[in-house]
Every structure is written in C-alpha cells, then in structure tokens.
Write the structure tokens for this entry.
Amino acid sequence: MDIKKRLIIDMDGVLADIYEQLIKLEFEETGTKINRKETLGKTEIEAFPNCLKHVRQKGFFRNAPVMPSAINVLKKLNEYYEVFIVSSATEYPNSLEEKYYWIEEYFPFISWKQLVLCGTKTVVKGDIMIDDHFKNLDFFDGKTILFTQPHNYEKNENSHERMNGWDEISTFLL
Amino acid sequence: MDIKKRLIIDMDGVLADIYEQLIKLEFEETGTKINRKETLGKTEIEAFPNCLKHVRQKGFFRNAPVMPSAINVLKKLNEYYEVFIVSSATEYPNSLEEKYYWIEEYFPFISWKQLVLCGTKTVVKGDIMIDDHFKNLDFFDGKTILFTQPHNYEKNENSHERMNGWDEISTFLL
C-alpha cells in the first residue's frame, strides 16, 4: 500500500475568493465597483481602500465565496492525498470560528482533524503546498504550487509551479 | 549567530491546568470534590463524570487556570528558543477564540504568529516537543518531553523524557 502524499492547501485566495468578497464589500460601502483587472499586480490593501476595515469585520471570512471548481477538485484530492487545510488566521481572532464553519459548510468531507489555523506556515511539514503567497511557498520543503491571484500576477515564480485555478490543479495532481 | 531551536509546546495539560478546571466544575455541578490523587492513571473522561459536558461549555478553556510556573519559564524559553504553542482545538470550535484570548491574557509575550490551532499534531515540525499525550509525542521527529499529568502517570515513557512540571523543564532546557 502506498502512503498518501501530504498536501497542504491554503484557504484565503486559494479555496476562498477573497478578491470577490472585497469587490462586493467595497461596492456596498462606496458604490464603486472595482474591476478585477484593475487589481492585477496589487495586494488586497493596495487594490481596496477599505480592505483592512472589511477584513476585520464580522462575517468577512464566513461569507466569502468559494473559488470556482474548488469543491469538486478538493473532494477528489481528498481521496488520493492526505489533505490539510492550513490557514493564516490567528492575526484575526474572529476569523478562527468563521473559517471552521466555512470549511464545514462547503467542504463537509474535510474533518476537523485536517484543519490547521496558524500565524506562520513555516511550522507545517508536507509533500506539496498550494498557496498564493511566496512568503509561504519559499519556506516549504516540498513541492510548491503558486495559485494565481491578482497580487502575484506576472511575478517571478521560477521556483514554484504556477497554476491558474482548480481545474489546472486537477489535471496536474490527479 | 546560532539559529534558535524550535520548541513546540502543548496547551491543555501543559500550559493550562485542565484537571484543576474539571475538579472545580465537577464540584460546582455535583458538590463532589474529586481529589487529584483519585484521578491518577485515568483519562479526563474516566476521572470526571461530566467531563464532556464541561469541555464543550462556553468558557471552559477561557477560564482554565495556568499551570504553576508556566508563565515565568515560558517567558525565558521564548528568549532562547523559537517557540510555537500548538494546541488540538478544532474538535471544539468554540475553543478556538477562547484559546487565543487565554494565551493573550497570560502569555502576552507570545504573538499570534506563534500560535497553531489544529486537529492533529503530525503536521507540525520542530526540534523539541513538550506534550502530555503519547499520541502527539510518538509521531514527532525531534526530541520529546512528556509532561506528567494524571492520565499518563506511571505509563511507560522509554522513548520520551518525563518532566514533572515547569520548574523541571526550566532546569532541563535553560
């Protein structure tokens, strides 16, 4: 029997579509509809004037939309890999419970044993990491997959495999 | 400059005195004062009839007493080691925020970056682990310290260094 490879998967910007959530909240607050194209190459804070306010408000993570195809692909990956969802969350204590219930709602096949809420990801070990941030991928020992998001658009990713969405990941890992 | 060794420290039964909290709640509920000696060799569930009810109730973790000498010793350890507090918490989602604020109150020198709330500890890597459970220590790659608690009393610990409290750890690690 083969031992399953351990797959470390990020939440914000990988499973949860944070830019869509920020576009919606910015529109509700200011009436300005920021186009996704305008955010290319910008961090969330640079792209959304009220980013920090919105991220800190109750419900931000609980009501975030799911990234397209994430549910079906993760369901499959969960059969063939030892999956852990590892999320930087302790900076925003109100996000902890919200992230738990968000996973429970959209990914009910992921158990509480597979969830890790932390501050820095240097402390986790695994075989493959999927993340949208270099600061996480650069310190990981195993194979690294950079999940395309506006803030990492066109940035150099020589050392990481770039994937544009969950369908590409499905083809690559399954 | 030496790179600091990474020290992984458990919360329940190591930093937080869970047996004391259960003795108090059992007494408040039933009027029966369970003696710590009666709990030797028993898990919390075996020793306390209302354990599961109490663990699940709001405030259980937030109001748990701190283990003797834990604050002063951890403050010192935090200077000489790269400390991470790693707690099994995702089984009880209400514990997530409680554990965050408990650490913030009693260990304000520990930042949110040093906190990891997870389901299983097989996913963390480090040099030294302090824990009261074999299920965590047995799967750790580095040096392992078994923190004496009633449930692990007199159990075989050939492969782990047994420590009876924070003062012993201080002498051993500092």
